[in-house]
Design a protein that fits this description.
A hairpin with a 2-residue loop joins strand 9 and strand 10. Strands 4-3-2-1-10-9-8-7-6-5 form a ten-stranded antiparallel sheet. It is built from two helices and ten strands, in the order E-H-H-E-E-E-E-E-E-E-E-E. The chain has helices at about 15-20, 25-30, and strands spanning about 5-15, 40-45, 45-55, 60-65, 70, 80-85, 90-95, 100-110, 115-120, 125-130. It is mainly beta.
Length: about 130
């Protein structure tokens, strides 16, 4: 799949507003906007390994398509949900443990960039990554 590889964040679109809607405080939002996030994605059949490395943390996330798993976001928010494939997109649907609200995430390759889109409580945002 085209997602395999190492990706470095290049730009954000409405990411601060998205984080604000998620309840992330101003200081953490300002830090996250400049986190220099690098993501390495490896797919083996339906199993994905995603290594995230930023100025704040390094974490390995392993999931299988269609299988529920739990995860903590960088700010400590705990979520649970699944990733699935819809066409050429990875689609994540996650529910927050603290308030049961849904976070939708889509990863897709557009013009050789990894575009990660977010939708939460009426706010949309994107992070665009280039191959590292």
């Amino acid at each position: 799949m085209a997602f395999n590889g190492t990706w470095k964040v290049d730009k954000n679109d409405n990411y601060d507003k998205f984080m604000e809607q998620m309840g992330i405080n101003l200081v953490k939002r300002k830090l996250a906007a400049h986190d220099n996030l690098k993501v390495t994605i490896t797919q083996n059949g339906d199993k994905f390994t995603v290594n995230e490395s930023s100025a704040f943390r390094t974490i390995e996330i392993i999931f299988t398509l269609g299988v529920h798993f739990e995860y903590s976001l960088a700010d400590g928010t705990e979520i649970g949900g699944t990733w699935t494939v819809e066409g050429d997109k990875l689609v994540g649907k996650f529910t927050r443990k603290d308030n049961s609200k849904v976070l939708l995430t889509v990863r897709e390759i557009i013009a050789n960039e990894l575009v990660q889109s977010y939708h939460y409580e009426g706010v949309d945002a994107k992070r665009v990554f280039k191959r590292a």
